[in-house]
Specification:
CATH architecture of the largest domain: 4-Layer Sandwich
Number of domains: 2
CATH superfamily of the largest domain: Aminohydrolase, N-terminal nucleophile (Ntn) domain
Helix content: 25-40%
Distance between the termini: 45 Å
Shape: globular
CATH class of the largest domain: Alpha Beta
CATH topology of the largest domain: Glutamine Phosphoribosylpyrophosphate, subunit 1, domain 1
Number of helices: 8
Strand order of the largest sheet: 7-8-1-2-9-10
Length: 249
């Protein structure tokens, strides 16, 4: 009922993007940290995500973790998962009874898996588009890849939800976007990413990190970056795509 992409960017960022004809798939599929990622889908078992993430953070490989989880789970035949470990290696499990079409692709810097799809071209097109768009910003590259999979047929039942999570070396996400119930959820993620350029991406530059507990506790630079982004948008003649409502206060 779902297809998803896990990738590691050249700067070390880790991203997971998912789309499905299933409500709030972005809430139940992704499990990430600053160094590993798991997508638990089909008849998803969240323990594959939580335990898998913890064990890979402790040093186990994606391959051995997924193999062990599958061996222990009596529902393994209806489970699908793929994962990236702390060494950047990928592994996947597609249960024999996942609804057709179901399968996965593993590449050196990303993995794609899906079930209940229109056919194998969905994950092939997703992988190919990810590889072909290395010049794009990471979030945009992930969305573009998933749109290619959707154009190849996507979830054969239709569209409903999507989610995108990116970590930049921290336990907390740098970006976490969701469209839980939408007629065109990947387009909605693209809109949210565009709106994020107005204020969000500048604000998070000052957020605390494990190495800098207090972050940057003043607005020095943040307001200037926001103003510059606004000036560029206006100069380019682009209207804001935000749905925010001003109260005037």
């Amino acid at each position: 009922m779902t297809y998803s992409l896990i990738a590691k960017d050249i700067d070390g960022s880790i991203g997971l993007i998912v789309a499905s004809k299933f409500f709030a798939c972005g809430a139940v599929v992704p499990f990430l940290s600053g160094s590993v990622a798991v997508a638990s889908q089909a008849f998803c078992n969240p323990i594959w995500g939580t335990e898998g993430r913890a064990r890979m953070m402790a040093g186990e490989s994606a391959q051995e973790v997924l193999a062990n989880l599958a061996a222990r789970d009596e529902g393994r035949a209806i489970r699908q998962a793929h994962a990236m470990d702390a060494q950047g290696n990928f592994a996947a499990h597609t249960g024999a009874d996942c609804v057709d079409w179901a399968g996965h692709i593993i590449q050196s810097d990303h993995s794609v898996a899906g079930n209940m799809l229109a056919g194998p071209r969905v994950i092939e097109a997703t992988s190919e588009a990810y590889q072909a768009n290395a010049a794009l910003p990471f979030a945009e590259r992930l969305i573009t890849a998933m749109v290619a999979g959707e154009k190849a047929g996507g979830d054969k039942r239709g569209r409903q939800a999507a989610g995108l999570v990116i970590h930049k070396g921290e336990a907390h996400p740098w970006l976490d976007l969701r469209a839980d119930d939408h007629a065109d959820p990947l387009a909605e993620l693209a809109r949210l990413w565009d709106v994020a350029q107005e204020r969000y991406v500048h604000f998070v530059k000052g957020m605390p990190s494990a190495a800098r507990f207090s972050g940057y506790p003043t607005r020095d630079g943040i307001d200037a970056d926001i103003a510059a982004a606004e000036a560029r948008r206006r100069a380019e003649g682009r209207a804001s795509r935000s749905h925010a409502v001003e109260t005037g206060e």
